[in-house]
Amino acid sequence: MANLGCPLKGGAGKRTGSPINIGGLLANLPLFQQLRESEIVNLAAAAREIGLSKGQILFQRGTLLDGFYVVVQGQVKLAFSSPQGHEKVVAIIEPGQSFGEAMMFLEKPCPVFAQALADTHLLYIAKRGIFAAIDHDSAFARRMLAGLSIRLRSLIHDVEDYSLHSSTQRVIGFLLHLAGTPDSGSATLELPTSKHVIASRLNLTPETLSRILHDLSESELIAVKGRHITVLDMARLRQFDDLLPPSHPLCDKSG
Amino acid sequence: MANLGCPLKGGAGKRTGSPINIGGLLANLPLFQQLRESEIVNLAAAAREIGLSKGQILFQRGTLLDGFYVVVQGQVKLAFSSPQGHEKVVAIIEPGQSFGEAMMFLEKPCPVFAQALADTHLLYIAKRGIFAAIDHDSAFARRMLAGLSIRLRSLIHDVEDYSLHSSTQRVIGFLLHLAGTPDSGSATLELPTSKHVIASRLNLTPETLSRILHDLSESELIAVKGRHITVLDMARLRQFDDLLPPSHPLCDKSG
DNA sequence: CGCCCGCTTGATCGTCATCAAGGGCGGTGG
DNA sequence: CCACCGCCCTTGATGACGATCAAGCGGGCG
């Protein structure tokens, strides 16, 4: 994976300024890290740059995707909205992450819409580029399969969360996730976006999230200061989680 | 896809009796329908037959899967269970459908357990067979990707359902799904398994499901007789669904 | 300075789970 | 053929969790 510093100034970027090095960006993404240079070049030829300003919609629900997206900078949310104008955030996509692959392969209308949560810089990679890479390199196909599998697993995790855990448990799980590795002691973290988006991601109203954070503070499990949260004792928070009553004790019995 | 009637009496079946034609079964599955005969033979070599009696556990949560499963006959449920012994059914797998691919590719512990809902007959296909097929045939890789994408879409649909729809709406959606194509008029259907499993699949308690079916009956939208349900008027049921209040109107606003 | 927006706090209400009995149907045995 | 039992499902009464409605607070920015 030698120097891709060459001025691969790819497709039709909408934006002024930096003729960004698409090949270089691609080569750094987890999915593409093991591709040969020539393959990166091909991929770059199928890619283009997209700039989005905060609040801008990338695509609506129902769109047919002929490629997928990688976030380079900024943040994108995927969500669906009910006819009544309410909405539910499914995922918050951070730099280095991608989305839309599944709907690209399926060639079915996308069930969610995508909106920039901040000024954002994306790569769009057309289907043909990916199909070519799959044809050339079966290891790439496997990595793509593994990538989709990861998504699937995380959606299953969400379903488990919504089904089996109370709102407080979901919030704690989210905090522990953001706090990452530290297994004990304290950890400081910053919420990746506004609280009402987080709330929706966790299937809560902003009011409920606020109350839960308040309660956790009162119990001296965390300290909240705006978007900055300190988990005072990772171990204690985890065990508090376990002690909580389950939310939806569905019926038991075997089939 | 000529005669695979040859006695491909595959791997170590646990069961007595019929040396079932694994190649023939594989060739009929959606995923494998376009493979060449020689490829089917290779796949069959990586496959074996598994018999399960009603209630038997196929694998527990946390298992590492080194292959995936195809239901030939019977029914399998995938579910997770909380420490308190409650459980939530994620999927009900019918003949011709497969499961476990994602966890096979990921090589991570499976987040759900699998249990037979009836006496069941499965094929197990080892990872090496699939990897070989991917290496030989990039079209197969694409089909595998499309297969995972379908799963992903249906999980997203579930998340939408749980987040945005009331319990009555979920039940109606389920009934409309089972009823299938008829866009208007009436349709009769049979629940694929016991009501308490259905309830769990829909994230309800059996009591709630019972009450909802009762109410829909009283409104003369459906008629229930044991596992047999008649949708009296597809169009009316659909529109009733639309008129219902949304369940969890989460907050709005854009980011 | 004052407005707007994101967040918090309080009061109330609805949906759905829980707990507790009561039917109905099929199977088994007398 | 009928009696008994178990299992699944239903029905009723109650309660809790979290949504809704409605103010109030604070901080950033024009």
Description:
The structure is a homodimer of 255-residue chains. With 255 residues, chain A is of the alpha+beta class. Chain A has two domains: 22-163, Jelly Rolls (Sandwich); 165-251, Winged helix-like DNA-binding domain superfamily/Winged helix DNA-binding domain (Arc Repressor Mutant, subunit A). Chain A has helices at 22-28, 37-45, 101-106, 127-136, 138-164, 167-179, 195-201, 206-218, 234-243, and strands at residues 47-52, 57-59, 67-73, 76-81, 87-93, 98-99, 113-116, 120-126, 187-190, 222-225, 228-231. In chain A, the strands form three sheets. A four-stranded antiparallel sheet of chain A has the order 1-8-3-6. A four-stranded antiparallel sheet of chain A has the order 2-7-4-5. In chain A, helix 4 crosses helix 5. The longest helix of chain A has 27 residues, at 138-164. The radius of gyration of chain A is 21 Å and the shape is globular. The model of chain A is unreliable at 1-18 and 249-255 (pLDDT under 50). At the A-B interface, strand 5, helix 3, helix 4, helix 5 and helix 7 of A face strand 5, helix 3, helix 4, helix 5 and helix 7 of B. The structure holds a DNA duplex (30 and 30 nucleotides).
